[in-house]
Design goal:
heterodimer; A: about 475 residues; mainly alpha; B: about 210 residues; 7 helices; globular
Chain lengths: ~475, ~210
């Protein structure tokens, strides 16, 4: 069953590669995404877990990530035919195939219980997403792809080294070294502590590069700035969250080894640093797609900060992963529509988006309020939970800095967003909303409705799943 | 065959220094290729006896690291009609000195960590860390994009040596997956390289600087 989840998008990728017609091929993406979503819902409904000890297994964390990634990919897949129909000038065979291949590998990450296999899948997502960044074939997108590929590959190579360190920690302890998650969690107490520490640091830097935590975030503004909007949404919502999930799997081993405090202090520091760096670079940012990249750096920081605070922060952080993913969907897709309508993505040329593209402009503004944690949207709830975890644990300095950085980001991002949305369009050329049509507007609306819904109430099955995942990190630490 | 491990690892370390000190791009690629072949032989030597699995892994490593990847790099080099200089940001002597310092650091680091009894007097872990650090030095101090790829290959070689200590934890499929990912990675990099060459008429990475904060 688990295998079918991976094979389905792979089959559609192959189909897309073989279909000769450009016009028909673009429908392979929604087709593959809908099939995948159907299978995921069926698996989640049946609650099938698979045999313990198997390589592919849906644990609670995997369920959360897989369900989230599948819904996000489905929503974004609706946008793809609308987008590619506007780009008839470019051959889309590689783009469509790689998009589906990327989704298959993302699914493999969520299912992998063998940490070596998980590494192979994460590296494969990097390789599958490189041609997506390079779709526009401009010198700037070429430069961005090169940086993405090189920085990403080196980061992931470090993660492999960290994975080996972890296996060595088991070898040193004198038992059969294994990279199966279940075995590592079971034998965690016997793992050699120095190797475990070294492993976590190297892994955190490695997968942290993939997540885009500061100071390893340098690929992010270039990649998100030059990639098509829908690719940005999938990377900022899906791939970075998958890298976060990889870190969580290793963190679980640290918790089981009663060595969580070390990992938590590292995560709090790196989380705050990422927020600070994002705040600095977001101020006076004139390129609104690069601005979104820094927003992604900030929110990845919030995710690891929440885990680092422990207790209720873990729940908040997991919920924030979902909120951030869908809010990024609204922002990247509306930014793409605005970019296309004005033919530019810097605030010198773009203003008055509300007049030229009223729906996309309004969505961009609403997305801004959502991502910066304004009520009634979802991120408000999750950020508030994390803040609450900080203060109730007596971490007043951390909580204070968290609030300060949120405020700095709000002001910095607000300046750019407001000048894009309000005012009068300065140029006459460019297209209006009509050129966008239903397919490029509905996905934004869907993402925004989900973010709004999560702010008003968290559906019971999701709430149960989030609590179950949070509990798996809480077994040995004191819950406040 | 265990007694052959350390001499082979010494060759790996010497190749690191050769890659750092040479001024010819082709020689750097040659060093990574030779290293790939040595690593393939090591896969059999470390196992200690002949069996199918290590021989297959060795064949894969030699084929991909020793032949395919160097061929890809040399083709990219020929296409770009660059034959000569490595053009480092820092001089060759300082490169070598940094490499020597990194190797020393790697030995000290490997000795501070508690090793499994069978690796206490072996060069496996120091050589692994030293090669990883050498890869980093080549990656960060060279101007040509092909050189950066060669640095990445050195880095991967170092990690591969670490993997030799963990034969039991790495199932065959995963090991093949890792090699395949490396190959596809270099292949994609090669494609991007040829586009860079066409677009910028150069593989000098200092030209890739239009994306930055104002």
């Amino acid at each position: 069953m688990a295998l079918a989840l991976i094979v389905a998008p792979l089959a559609f990728a192959l189909l897309a590669f073989l279909v000769p017609s450009e016009r028909i091929r673009i429908w392979c993406v929604p087709g593959g995404a809908a099939t995948h979503l159907g299978l995921v819902l069926w698996v989640l409904h049946r609650g099938e877990a698979g045999d313990p000890g198997a390589w592919l297994l849906l644990d609670p964390l995997g369920k959360l990530m897989l369900g989230f990634a599948s819904v996000l990919f489905f929503i974004c897949s609706i946008y793809v035919p609308g987008y590619l129909a506007l780009r008839r000038d470019r051959p889309n065979r590689v783009f469509v195939s790689c998009l589906l291949l990327f989704h298959a590998m993302l699914t493999l990450i969520t299912l992998s219980q063998h940490l070596g296999l998980m590494w192979v899948a994460i590296e494969a997502t990097t390789l599958a997403s490189a041609p997506l960044l390079y779709f526009n074939k401009t010198p700037r997108s070429l430069e961005a792809t090169w940086k993405y590929l090189l920085v990403g590959s080196v980061g992931i190579a470090l993660a492999l080294l960290g994975t080996f360190f972890l296996a060595y920690a088991g070898l040193r302890a004198g038992h059969h070294p294994s990279l199966l998650l279940a075995n590592l969690v079971r034998d965690a107490r016997q793992l050699s502590p120095p190797w475990l520490h070294a492993a976590f640091i190297v892994l955190f830097v490695g997968y942290g590069t993939k997540m885009g935590l500061a100071p390893m975030h340098t690929w992010k503004p270039d990649a998100y700035g030059e990639a098509p909007g829908v690719v940005g949404a999938l990377l900022a919502g899906g791939l970075t969250s998958a890298a976060f999930m990889a870190i969580l799997r290793f963190y679980r081993i640290c918790v089981a080894a009663e060595d969580g405090a070390f990992a938590r202090s590292l995560m709090v520091t790196m989380g705050l640093l990422s927020m600070a760096v994002a705040g600095v670079f977001m101020a006076r940012q004139r390129d609104f797609k690069r601005m979104l990249a820094y927003s992604s750096v900030e929110h990845m920081g919030i995710l690891v900060l929440g885990i680092g605070l422990g207790g209720a922060g873990v729940f908040g952080s997991l919920l924030h992963m979902v909120n951030n993913g869908f809010a990024k969907g609204v922002l990247f897709l509306s930014a793409a529509n605005i970019h296309r309508a004005f033919g530019s993505k810097v605030t010198n040329d773009v203003s008055g988006a509300l007049q030229r593209v009223p729906v996309s402009g309004a969505m961009f503004l609403a997305g801004f309020f959502a991502i910066t944690g304004s009520p009634p949207f979802g991120p408000f709830i999750s950020e508030f939970t994390i803040l609450n975890a900080a203060f109730s644990n007596g971490r007043y300095v951390v909580g204070g800095l968290f609030l300060l950085f949120l405020a700095v980001v709000f002001v910095g991002m607000g300046t750019t967003v407001l000048s894009v949305v309000f005012g009068k369009p300065r140029t006459v050329e460019g297209t209006g909303e009509l050129a966008n049509g239903f397919l490029t507007i509905a996905p934004m609306a869907a993402c925004l409705s989900i973010v709004l819904l999560l702010g008003l109430y968290v559906p019971a099955p999701l709430d149960r799943l989030l609590r179950e995942v949070a509990a798996s990190f809480d077994s040995t630490q004191v819950v406040p | 065959m265990w007694h052959l491990t350390d001499p082979l690892l010494v060759i790996v370390l010497l190749l690191n220094f050769f890659a750092l000190g040479t001024s010819r791009l082709r020689a750097v690629i040659g060093a990574t290729a030779t290293q790939g072949v040595v690593l393939g032989v090591l896969a059999v030597v470390v196992e200690g006896h002949w069996s199918l699995r290590p021989v297959l892994i060795a064949a894969g490593a030699i084929g991909i690291k020793g032949i395919l990847i160097p061929q890809l790099l040399i083709r990219a080099m020929r296409e770009a009609t660059i034959r000569r200089e490595v053009e480092p940001f820092i001089g060759y002597v300082s490169s070598l000195l940094t490499g020597a310092a990194a190797t020393g650091l790697a030995i000290v680091f490997a000795n501070t960590l508690p090793l499994a009894p069978e690796h206490v007097n072996s060069l496996l872990l120091p050589a692994s860390f030293a090669t990883v650090l050498t890869g980093f030095i080549v990656l960060t101090t060279r101007r040509k994009a092909i050189n950066q790829v060669a640095g990445y290959v050195l880095l991967e070689n170092g990690i591969y040596i670490m993997g030799l200590t963990l034969v039991e934890a790495l199932p065959f499929l995963v090991e093949v997956g890792i090699l395949l990912d490396l190959f596809v990675g270099i292949f994609v990099m090669g494609i991007i390289l040829s586009h860079i060459n066409r677009e910028f008429a150069s593989l000098d990475t200092t030209r890739l600087s239009s994306l930055k904060e104002e």
